[in-house]
Specification:
The structure holds two protein chains of two kinds.
Chain A: E1 3-4, E2 8-13, H1 17-26, E3 33-36, H2 44-47, H3 56-61, E4 74-77, E5 85-86, H4 115-118, H5 120-127, H6 146-160, E6 168-169, E7 172-173, H7 197-208, E8 214-215, E9 225-226, E10 232-233, H8 259-265, E11 269-272, E12 276-282, E13 289-295, E14 301-311, H9 315-325, E15 342-345, E16 348-355, E17 372-375, H10 385-388, E18 394-399, H11 420-429, E19 433-440, E20 449-457, E21 463-468, H12 473-491, E22 497-501, E23 518-520, E24 544-546, H13 561-580
Parallel strand pairs in A: 1-14, 2-3, 2-14, 3-11, 4-21, 14-24
Antiparallel strand pairs in A: 4-5, 6-7, 8-17, 9-10, 12-13, 13-14, 15-23, 16-19, 16-22, 17-18, 18-19, 20-21
Chain B: H1 2-15, H2 20-28, H3 40-47, H4 65-78, H5 93-102, H6 132-150, H7 161-172, H8 183-199, H9 211-216, H10 244-247
Helix pairs in contact in B: 3-4, 4-5, 4-7, 5-8, 6-8
The chains are: A alpha/beta, B mainly alpha.
Chain lengths: 588, 248
């Protein structure tokens, strides 16, 4: 039944940003590398060509580039007292599938998380004391500081050709950039993007209130660019078909045209597509990975032995593989023991919608995925959130990412959902509305976790991943506090009407919120509270490394792809260290 | 080319003395818009053939004739033709929905439909064992049965425009007693697909002539604004929208 293949030195599971960076960088070691990607091969030409790529129904509504949940999905419940039920169609988040992973269809917002986000426990204790931390909150540090990650953030920004403006250059604060960011060694590789009317209004209003607006760092190239690997980027067209789409201009950074072809060129790297890894096989003692079992397009089963296994699937996919393969002890919420599935987190949204008169033109279709003006004045590490009675914060922005009308047709609350009055409102407001959004941090809690579902199975006979998650009072307080700020900014714009959007009561898996799932296999310094050591190496199975957003101990008020890229480069260095003397990089 | 086809269609209609608003009216005729209910047979005959010069393009692939009459009536109720802009029927939304139901989407190719099935909480989302096409089939039967029972023996498509609107509000509120599926689940998918067909690229069968994009000022598939974004900041961007076929 199962065909056993020739052993490789390194087996990588998943070919998105993380798998692509690791394959390309580790190829330099000369070791044999096999990459197993569950989805299809694809490239800008022919897969994302204009004009067929500009099809909102096909890509944004029918999720052409995303995970097909008829094969693999998860079950969900808000609390452990409920019965989890399957996510029968995509909604709240959109994991990718195929070469490039979600790195193909992302928006391109490329942040460095704030220094606070890497050491929230240390900084909270120092400023507020333990009394500020709710007893059920699993607040913990990465074990890697912002300063340690800075060179890796830098590397990822230059790989992606990020367009932005520094706000903290080697400790010097620079007006017009993000003055709340950690110190950076150099300016962004490309200048900021051209702002829209919405961005201009936001900037003016935020400044008038004494805040510090700046252009969002964006991996939508503001000009033609050649990255340090020699990969050429085109300039962004501001076409408005970005998130959920592939980019026809190679202006939006994606692994499929950068790191992946460079890795594929190496004779010691073999990429197998339509190769779905079902399990990592451990030895009898459960402390050494021997191989990965996968099936190909025809359903034939193969066993790929390897000296080192790197899990580089989507955050949820990595945790699922660890639980099903027995890599590390599963988390038990009743006792608080175990680490795999622990500290799953998400983000929380709130904000304000601003309705203008008919003389103010937004042209919402002139857009790019990461085109936004932002303030970080109320983000996690920037202000005294202790005074407000919560831990965390959020980025506040107005994003000009789409005017595609199936998804974007704002109407004031109270408007019917159909009929003549609905139509009149759509026509009236389509070009005259903007949204101010809070991307709110979410801390980890004892009650929020991932494990294996006892009832439902995927097409391959494996138990589905089970997600137990809800929002907590700490986050709702934060989201409502920031909604007030958003309202204030909206009111400063001089609009007809500003509508506050409050914190959600419960987490729902139905409406799209963000593909920013984090945690479940977090890094840290204590094997009792983290599945991975600070080098993303499994404490229990030292020849397994697990990189990606599953390693983040809690979620921040910023998009996760920047730290995902930085952590991939951090992992490259850790693995090079490991290869010199295979074994635990941190003694247990 | 969809656009040329649209133009040809306009020319044909002009040739027979039907223009402008009258042409629009012609397409909505299958739905009884006056209090006088039309006989079911006539309604069905019209429903499967909105005014168009290419009969195969509009032939229904999934819905039966009685079902298609209900779909046309639903679309016409959700997005009527009015002084604001085109109605859903005249821009081909029923054709769009029919094509979608006949496609992989309608057959649930990308849904997880394994049991067991539980009702769940609203936060857990859709939990019926039905793919969209199956939900339509069952939902239309439920809608008609409920209408017959509570609306003087008439199916949904046989009701007047005002009565259809009133009935649909009850369905939307989840207060219609459907016997097989929750009324809200049926309403939600009809509303979602109607909006998709109305605003999507004409390549999918709705938004004919890009009439809906023209109405809201969306330029469509163009997507080349690097030189315009600054020039048109806070100014109206008045261009003829382009569809995927226009640009192919």
């Amino acid at each position: 039944m199962t065909t056993k293949l020739k052993s490789a030195d390194i087996v990588i599971v998943g070919l998105g940003w993380t798998g692509g960076i690791l394959a390309k960088e580790l190829a330099d070691t000369g070791l044999s590398i096999v990459v197993l990607e569950r989805g299809a091969p694809r490239d800008t030409n022919p897969d994302f060509m204009f004009p067929t790529a500009h099809d909102e129904l096909r890509y944004a509504q029918r999720h052409e580039l995303m995970q097909n949940v008829s094969r693999e999905t998860l079950t969900f419940r808000n609390t452990a007292s409920e019965t989890a039920l399957p996510m029968r169609q995509l909604g709240s988040f959109l994991p990718g599938e195929g070469v490039g992973g979600a790195g193909v269809h992302w928006n391109g917002a490329t942040w460095r998380w704030l220094p606070w986000d890497h050491e929230p426990l240390k900084l909270t204790l120092a400023r507020y004391g333990r009394v500020a931390i709710p007893p059920d909150m699993n607040l913990q540090d990465w074990g890697v500081s912002y300063d340690e990650l800075e060179p890796y953030y830098d590397k990822f920004e230059f790989l992606c050709g990020v367009s932005g403006k520094a706000g903290n250059l080697r400790g010097e604060k620079i007006a017009g950039g993000n003055v709340f960011e950690g110190s950076r060694q150099r300016e962004y590789p490309n200048p900021p993007m051209i702002q829209t009317q919405a961005g201009a209004l936001f900037e003016k209003a935020a400044k008038s209130l004494g805040y510090h607006p700046f252009p969002q760092p964006s991996a939508n190239a503001s000009q033609p660019y050649v990255n340090p690997d020699g990969v050429a980027y085109g300039a962004c067209h501001y076409c408005g078909y970005c998130e959920r789409f592939g980019c026809e201009a190679n202006a939006k950074a994606s692994p499929h045209f950068t790191v992946i072809p460079l890795a594929a060129k190496k004779s010691n790297v073999e990429i197998r597509t339509n190769a779905r890894v079902l399990k990592v096989n451990l030895d009898a003692a459960k402390n050494h990975a021997e191989s990965a079992t996968y099936i190909d397009a025809s359903g034939r089963e193969f066993e790929q032995p390897g000296g080192l296994v790197i899990l580089a699937a989507y955050a949820l996919g990595n945790v699922h593989l660890m639980l099903w393969s027995g890599i590390g002890q599963p988390y038990d919420p009743a006792t608080g023991e175990g680490v795999v599935g622990r500290n799953y987190a998400y983000q929380i949204g709130s904000g304000a919608t601003v309705f203008f008169d008919e003389k103010t033109w937004m042209n919402p279709f002139m857009a790019a995925g990461a085109l936004a003006m932002v303030i970080d004045d109320f983000n996690t590490g920037s202000f005294d959130h202790g005074k407000e009675g919560f831990i965390g914060g959020g980025g506040i922005s107005t994003l000009s990412s789409t005017g595609r009308p199936i998804g974007f047709r704002p109407v004031p609350p109270g408007t019917p959902a159909w009929g003549t009055e609905w139509k009149r409102a759509v026509v009236r407001h389509y070009n005259h509305t903007l949204a101010i959004n809070n991307q709110g941090s979410v801390m980890a809690y004892r009650q929020n976790y991932l494990d294996l579902d006892p009832t439902y199975r995927d097409r391959y006979g494996r138990p589905l991943l089970r997600m137990t998650f809800d929002f907590h009072a700490n986050e709702q307080k934060q989201a409502n506090y920031i909604a007030d700020i958003c309202l204030k900014i909206g009111q400063a714009m001089g609009a007809d009407r500003v509508v506050r959007r409050a914190s959600p009561q419960r987490y729902s898996i139905v409406p799209y919120q963000s593909t920013h799932n984090t945690g479940g296999a977090v890094l840290g310094t204590d094997p009792k509270t983290s599945a991975l050591n600070r080098f993303t190496q499994s404490w229990d199975v030292p020849n397994v490394f697990v990189a990606g957003a599953c390693a983040f101990p809690q979620n921040a008020g910023k998009n996760p792809t920047g730290p995902v890229g930085a952590l991939a480069y951090w992992t490259v260095d850790a693995i090079k260290q490991y290869l010199k003397n295979p074994g635990p990089l941190v003694p247990v | 080319m969809a656009d040329n086809e649209g133009l040809r269609r306009r020319d044909v209609l002009k040739g027979i003395g039907v223009t402008g608003a009258a042409a629009g009216l012609a397409t909505t005729r299958p739905v009884a818009s006056d209090a006088q209910a039309q006989p079911a047979t006539e309604s069905h005959a019209h429903a499967s053939a909105p005014a168009h010069n290419d009969s195969t393009a509009d032939a229904f692939r999934f819905f039966t004739a009685p079902e298609s009459a209900v779909v046309v009536a639903l679309v016409d109720t959700l997005i009527p033709k009015d002084d604001v802009g085109p109605g859903g029927v005249e821009v081909g939304v029923p054709t769009f929905i029919d094509r979608e139901m006949a496609s992989a989407y309608g057959r649930g190719a990308r849904m997880y439909l394994d049991g067991p099935f539980g009702e769940g909480t609203p936060q857990q989302g859709y939990q019926l064992p039905l793919a969209p096409a199956e939900l339509y089939r069952v939902g239309i039967a439920d809608l008609n049965a409920w209408c017959v029972k509570t609306r003087g023996g008439k199916t949904f498509d046989q009701l007047s425009a005002a009565d259809r609107t009133a009935a649909l509000k009850v369905v939307e509120a989840g207060q219609a007693e459907f016997t097989q599926v929750p009324a809200r689940a049926f309403f939600n998918i009809v509303l979602q697909n109607t909006m998709e067909g109305y605003f999507a690229d004409p390549i999918h069968g709705g938004n004919r002539n890009k009439a809906v994009w023209k109405m809201i000022g969306f330029p469509g598939a163009i997507g080349m604004y690097a030189d315009d974004i600054e020039k048109y900041r806070n100014k109206k961007y008045d261009v003829e929208p382009k569809s995927i076929q226009d640009l192919s």
